[in-house]
Design a protein that fits this description.
Length: 198
C-alpha cells in the first residue's frame, strides 16, 4: 500500500490521478502509524514552504517522515521540506537532504531576464539512481516553482534555469523531485513507476 501524506497543501488530486493511472493502491493519510506501515510514502506539496512546514509540525510529521525506512518520494515543496532550510518564509526544514532551497534568479549571468516562477517544460540531465531507469538524458518534465534546492552530494538530476539546481535528490530510501512527475506525461509516469518498483 502507498500512503500519500495529506497535510492540506494541494496537488493531492493530480498525484492520486497519476497513481490511479499506474494501477497503484493508495491511501491519503496524516496518521503516523499508517505512514510507518505503508510500503511506499509520497509527500506532495504546493504552496509556501514555511506554512507547509508548520502543517507538518502541527501533525508531528516533521519527526515521523525522517524516521521512515521504506522508499519516500517528495514532490515539489514536498522535496523542499526534506532539505535543510528554505529561503521561502525562512523555513527550517527536515534536514534529510544536505542542501538549502534558494529563490531562483531573475537574471542570467549575461543579464538576460528570467521569468520567475519557472513554469512549463524543461529538461533534466545527469540522471542517477533507479528513479530514472530507462530514461534518456535531457528528458522533458513539467515545472511550476520559484524556489529550488542547490546542487549537492544528494543531487541525482539537474536542470539549469539561470543557474543549475537540483531537479531531483536521492539519499538512502529518500527521493525528491522538484518537477511534477504527475504532470509530466509519459516521462513522469515512468518515474512514478520506477519509484513504485524500488
Amino acid at each position: 500500500m502507498i500512503a500519500v501524506v495529506d497535510y492540506d497543501t494541494g496537488n493531492l488530486r493530480s498525484v492520486a490521478d497519476a497513481l490511479h493511472r499506474a494501477g497503484a493502491e493508495f491511501i491519503l493519510t496524516a496518521d503516523p502509524a499508517l505512514l510507518r506501515r505503508a510500503d511506499r510514502v509520497i509527500l506532495p506539496g504546493v504552496g509556501e514552504a514555511s506554512s507547509a512546514m508548520a502543517k507538518l509540525r502541527e501533525r508531528g510529521l516533521d519527526t515521523v517522515i525522517p524516521s521512515l525506512t521504506q522508499p519516500v518520494l517528495g514532490i515539489c515543496i514536498g522535496m523542499q521540506l526534506m532539505c535543510l532550510s528554505s529561503e521561502e518564509g525562512d523555513a527550517r526544514c527536515m534536514g534529510i537532504f544536505p542542501t538549502r532551497v534558494r529563490r531562483l534568479p531573475t537574471l542570467t549571468a549575461a543579464g538576460e531576464r528570467l521569468k520567475v516562477p519557472h513554469v512549463g517544460w524543461d529538461t533534466i540531465s545527469e540522471l542517477r539512481t533507479p528513479l530514472f531507469d530507462g530514461m534518456a538524458e535531457d528528458t522533458y518534465v513539467y515545472y511550476v516553482h520559484s524556489f529550488a534546492a542547490e546542487p549537492c552530494a544528494a543531487t541525482v538530476a539537474t536542470t539549469r534555469y539561470g543557474v543549475p539546481f537540483s531537479a531531483a535528490l536521492g539519499r538512502g530510501n529518500f527521493f525528491g523531485t522538484q518537477f511534477h512527475p504527475e504532470k509530466s506525461g509519459a516521462a513522469g509516469a515512468r518515474i512514478l513507476l520506477n519509484f513504485l518498483n524500488l
